[in-house]
Amino acid sequence: MTILDLRHVLRMLPGVTGNALEPPSFVSRQVREARRFYLNLNPPAGHKLSTVCGGWERCAPDFQVERADFPFLCVEFVAGGKGKVTLDGREWPLQRGTVFAYGPGCAHRIAADPGDPPAKYFLDFAGREGLELLRAANLLPGNCRIVPDAEELEEAFEQVLASGRKAGPQAARITALHTEILLRTLADSVAAAGGHEQSHQTYLKCRSCIEGRFLEFSTATEVAAACHVHPAYLSRLFARHGHESPYHALLRCRMMHAAALLDGGGRIVREVAEELGLDPFHFSRVFKRIHGVSPAEFLKRRGAA
Is 47 left (phi over 0), alpha (psi -120 to 50) or beta? Predict the structure, then answer.
């Protein structure tokens, strides 16, 4: 059977389309749902970078993997939930943003928190360039860390997953390129943190607070109070890591919500303004500042669409 034939068969495995065939023995069955791809389970020696397989898994409460060895280099990224990972005898907690690596000769154990089992991505690959990129990312097999921007890394994993699940003669090469981008994103996150990783984590928490509770706040001072930081420090965090002020981030979230309400139909400008606690005139000015058009023009364009 050729590699392309193998790939066609493995595309039909559980967690991909529900076919009854079994995945490779190193793939866990203790998952509730999964999206996976398999490209080349026997990567050629001497290649700079070859993508073997990868995927996304929502772990079952009893999820537990324990291996003394692994044939490929592997990076795993936790998108949500909790658990624990042990790499060469060292244990780390798993949470959103955790990324860890293992490979040949690296004993590892991954276990879910039964009360909040993780959803995670994995990517298996081989090649000397892959190893060097892991080194640049401070993620040689046996290492674990928190990435400063979980959203960016999750998007990179999704790109790899999307390309890996496509057919076509260039799919393997395209997926290898996306794998390289993902690994370089990890390496770049080390440089971007540059000794400011703690402040970046604080920024991410503040940004998450704004994105999740924007209807509760009218000012950046209220955001700072909710995040238990000084308003001046909040401004410095956003200037350093977000390239916008916290107040602009708040306005953007509120106006995106307003646009969604107007786009849903059945709501007039005055009603949306009242829901946001603004008078219609001020609401129109802020809406235009964020979206480039007034609410009335937005509704007009929507009606013409």
Answer: beta
Closest CA to 53 of 83, 92, 27: 27
Sheet architecture: strand order including 90-94 = 64-67, 108-112, 83-87, 90-94
Tokens of 23: 């995945």
Start-end of CATH 1.10.10.60 domains in the chain: 197-304
Dig out the tokens for 8 from the structure.
């066609």
Burial class (CB in 10 A: 0-12, 13-18, 19+), 127: buried
- Per-residue pLDDT of the chain in tens (305 residues, 90 and over written 9): 333 334 433 443 333 333 334 567 777 788 999 999 998 888 887 788 999 999 999 999 999 999 999 999 999 999 999 999 999 999 999 999 999 999 999 999 999 999 999 999 999 999 999 999 999 888 999 999 988 788 889 999 999 999 999 878 888 899 999 999 999 989 877 655 444 567 777 888 899 999 999 999 999 999 999 999 999 999 988 887 777 899 999 999 999 999 999 988 778 999 999 999 999 999 999 999 999 999 999 988 776 44
Which of 84, 110, 82 minimizes the C-alpha distance to 95? Answer: 82
Q: Does domain 3-193 have CATH number 3.40.50.700?
A: no
Residue 151 token pair: 């959203």
- Please report the beta strands in 7-118, taking only residues with DSSP state E, as ranges in sequence order: 31-38, 50-59, 64-67, 73-80, 83-87, 90-94, 98-102, 108-112
> Hey, what CATH class is 197-304 in?
mainly alpha
71, 75, 80, 86 alpha-carbon torsion, rounded to 10°:
60
292: left (phi over 0), alpha (psi -120 to 50) or beta: left
- The pTM of the full predicted model, rounded to 2 decimals, is 0.59
Cα–Cα distance between 205 and 225 in angstroms, integer?
13
